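Hi U.,

Before I forget, here's the chain from the pilot set. I'm dumping it here mostly so it's searchable later in email.
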Amino acid sequence: MKSNRGAAKRFRVTSSGKIKRHSSHHSHILTKKSAKRKRKLRKESPVSQADSSRVHKMILK
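Structure:
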């Protein structure tokens, strides 16, 4: 079964099995955003429980 290539580039699975994602809103129009907001957007955050099963199916190898 092939993995969804778009999803494979966007999500990472941690050693404990959780799925991490990058935050949105950090690519352009950054001048109006505060330094604190941009700093928080740099970090990865876990995928929500509601979406994790769907994302897991997409990135299966």
